[in-house]
Amino acid sequence: MMDITTIATRKIILLILALLCLAIGNRNACASDLVASEEPVLKQLMIEDFNGGGEAGPAEIARALSVSSTDQNASMQFERSSDEKRGDQGSSLHLSYNFFPPPPDDTQPTPIASNREIGLHMKLYGLDASGYDRLAFWIKADRRQRYASAFEVQFFRPGLKVPELPEKASFVVTGVNGEWRRIVIPLNLMPGISDWSNLSELVIAFQSRRSSSEKGTYFIDDIALIKTGRPGPSASDRVESPIKQAWEKSLGGAEAAKPYIKARLAGWPTQTLVDGKTLPASEREFLTRVAQDTWRGLDALTDKVHGLPLDNVVFGDSAPSLSNPRIGDYTSVTNIGFHLIAIVSAHRLELISAEQALDRLRTTLSTLESLETYQGFFYNYYDTTSLERTSNFISFVDSAWLTAGLIVTRMAFPELHERCSRLIEQGDYGFFYDPVTQQMSHGYYVNLAAPASYHYGALYAESRLGSLIAIGKEDVPEVHWFRMDRTFPAGFTWQTQAPLERKLKANDKYQWTGGYYEWKGIRYVPSWGGSMFEALMPVLLLDEQKYAPASLGLNGKIHAEIQRRYAAEELGYPVWGMSPSSTPGEEKYFEYGVKVLGSLGYYAGAVTPHAAALALLVTPDAALANLRQLAERYHIYGEYGFYDAVQPVTGQGAYKYLCLNQAMLFIALANHLSDRTIQKLFASDPIVLKALPVLGQENFFD
């Protein structure tokens, strides 16, 4: 039998091999790197050769091409040209743009940001590209004119859930010059689209922040899809865990290893359900009991060797049972960050001593210091048994929650200040910052050496705390805060409603666009999905009612109130609080929310206790009554506190403990029961103190 610790000695060798492979496979988004592809072409589909038609669109070019711009003054012209072409016959596309032409008069409004984007759109009419693995085209800049050496190629397809909200995949090409160059882009390096059928548009987009020149002129020819049979790495690639697999094999397989994984845990429940009506009658005693039970679960479902919390444990789908649990022995960096905060919270609630807290924190910090990282950041997932990374993705928002946990820890325990500070400072959040959009990317695929295609564009999202930390660390400029959208343009017809009063606002340093939604006479700035964790997860650490009373603080209270009223008035639910959670009676995890509260808006469904607990921070009386109702009306309270969710109509519970949701619930209780102790620790940190002034500069509804 092989022990996991002896197998781990091989990890250094495997890590070296992985780094060598990564170095070989790495690439920059540079035309010169992509042109040199000598892969054999198995088949090709010419999208447009600009000689009068293509195999994937109408013959008449005027029907296939159009122009879009973020500013009405910017301009683009295009025409066929026989002067410059690839080969001896036919034509190419002659394309020119001007970001800042003189306006027709001086009454035109000043743009909010200096960035402008002009895109040439080519309709693809539902093109199926699933049989191809690369996009190829020829391009050269017009030597007689100025030009940008970089631009962005974008594909769009109708969204799976909301067709009006298209999926987008993009790739930035650099190194364009005055010579014809063939650009060959693997589709797998454009990770925003997973299903390459039914493509609607191909866009070549020029952004002013990518260019040293306000004008540009190019020739483009022979845009085609090709198949080489070697698609290369993708965003969905599985990361193997050879150490874990070898350990499981030595025990007789994954199923045989389950008891050994369970034995590594710090504890285990002895009963599945507790009668909620037997919980204490007084308000404080009730909340204290819930906090105690929840903490015991968080502490128990932790790998006692490495001090890492398990992501989830499932005690049955339709009914709770201890006989055949499913143990998710992996964790995310968000889980780890919240585990640190939960330990601090348990100490502040006097559930554990300072010595016990320090012992747990030191174990977890030692494990963190041993994990594989990239550019100073942790991968999104790790195996809690073998400590191997199980993800290729570096997530901005998850990285930020780990940093937040380290901030709270170093402020609570000065003995750990130096260790926490080293982990905080080893990563620069400029790594995620896109200077073109001035927003934070969702993250970075290490195996692709490419960022995600999407950004955290909405201000009222859980990612706002990460933005504040990045500003406080001085890793990104303060202007980033004002480049996040309060509302989206009315022309975005996929929204649940058109925003009201979406107009220019300003302070003495920045401009931004405001606006709000309205429901039954109540004004609010929407989140993306209308879920409670988007609205109130940051409030676990940041007292927005204190530092942003006219904006974020007021908005959080309104979101909780609409959650309550919508559940009662529109759905007829006796309880409220919708947020991403487990689906009662099923294995899946789903995004639930109040649709009117979101720009996109998630659909209603399960109610989750963590959402009710989050509301303690803004509407404590209503939240307390709601938690009591959840405990007494439904069979969803166990030895380790509330299970993850309930369907209010049927009463079906989701008998799972999810680390993140339980930790959010527990930390909300800790703040409520101990005079906002975690919020105060967080606000006293130098990084946070440096960023706090940005919060008070705005009134959402003036």
Quick tags:
five-stranded antiparallel sheet; six-stranded antiparallel sheet; Glycosyltransferase; alpha+beta; 702 residues; Jelly Rolls; 30% helix
Report on this structure.
By secondary structure, the protein is α+β, with helices and mostly antiparallel strands. The chain folds into two domains: 37-101 and 115-227, Galactose-binding lectin (Jelly Rolls, Sandwich); 254-697, Glycosyltransferase. Helices cover 30% and strands 21% of the residues. The chain contains 20 helices and 36 strands. The strands form 13 sheets. Strands 1, 3, 4, 6, 9 and 11 form a six-stranded antiparallel sheet that branches. The termini are far apart.
Question: Strands, helices and their partners?
Answer:
Layout: H1 4-7, H2 11-25, H3 31-35, E1 43-48, H4 61-64, E2 65-69, E3 75-81, E4 92-98, E5 117-127, E6 134-141, E7 151-157, E8 167-173, E9 181-186, E10 199-207, E11 215-227, H5 242-251, H6 254-263, H7 283-300, E12 302-303, E13 308-309, E14 312-314, E15 326-328, E16 330-332, H8 333-348, H9 354-370, E17 373-374, E18 377-378, E19 381-383, E20 393-395, H10 396-412, H11 417-425, E21 433-434, E22 439-441, E23 443-445, E24 450-451, E25 455-456, H12 464-472, E26 504-506, E27 511-513, E28 517-519, E29 522-524, H13 532-536, H14 544-547, H15 552-569, E30 581-582, E31 589-590, H16 609-614, H17 620-633, E32 637-638, E33 641-642, E34 645-646, E35 653-654, E36 656-658, H18 659-673, H19 677-683, H20 686-691
Antiparallel strand pairs: 1-11, 2-5, 3-4, 4-11, 5-10, 6-9, 6-11, 7-8, 7-10, 12-13, 14-15, 14-36, 16-19, 17-18, 20-23, 21-22, 22-25, 23-24, 26-27, 28-29, 30-31, 32-33, 34-35
